[in-house]
Design brief:
This protein is an alpha/beta fold and 299 residues long. 41% of the residues lie in helices and 18% in strands. The strands form 2 sheets. It has a 6-stranded mixed beta sheet, with helices on both faces. α1 packs across α11, α2 crosses α11 and α4 runs parallel beside α5. It is globular, with a radius of gyration of 19 Å. It starts with a helix and ends with a helix.
Amino acid sequence: MIRSFKEMEEVVLKGSKKVVAVACAHDEHTLEAVLHANKKGILDYLLFGRKHDILEKGKALGVEIDPSLITHCEDDMMAAQWAVRAVKEKKADFILKGIMQTSTLLREVVNKDRGIGLGKPMSHVALIDAPNCDRLLGVTDGVMLIKPDYEQKKAIIKNAMQIYDKLGISSPKVAGLCAVEVVNPKMPETIDADKLTQDGKNGEFGSAIVEGPMAIDLALIPEASKIKGYKGEIQGDADILLTHDIACGNVLAKALVAVAGAKYAGCILGAICPISLNSRSASFEEKYYSLVLCTLMLQ
């Protein structure tokens, strides 16, 4: 069982090397992460973006990048198209978003003629390595689906379960986060959480344990479950935190990083390949561990 990013890196280093297609690679933190992963022996790369800038930023990082690995792209859309094409033509195994708008890349990913979608909901998992937690937490979905409905939430859970299978956890515990533990008709998220709980009991999610509605203290703090007398199978030991909408998921994941000192890795699932999708302001470390996560998903 993988419980930390360090352990995840160790597992990936023992596996086969993959190739990442980097859309808009003319960004220092993006290049730093890719070149570091390459030096470690985790992956090779194809770079799409402003060729001169990529070469210069590579030199600033102490690396003479082979020009043959760079495809010059005049704009973000062209870079997105080339990166997606590289995956479709099996020249690359997955995609990393560089210094570009998320929507630009995703429009190309879901393009019906050229894209790499599978015709089902795609969703994002923020994998969190927090200092005071003995396991990796998954926060989903704080990037892709703005206000997922009940059916989309089922897809979100199933996508997140793929990551936990790779982490060696066959029966992840999924907490349907809400502000309360009871169903309230005025709070539609509690209705969805209750229905998903019933789905879990009926085998919809295999061996995963799905419970909700559930406040976050019950999901993460064992003592809170005892105090509140919560009788469910999740007793402060949830693995996956299912949020009601993109705002909640985004704020929760970023707050854990900013305030709790957690490390973050992000991955989109539901397409032909995993997609490493980080904020343009993401650190080198965040982008590096996102590359490690995507590589794990392919091993």
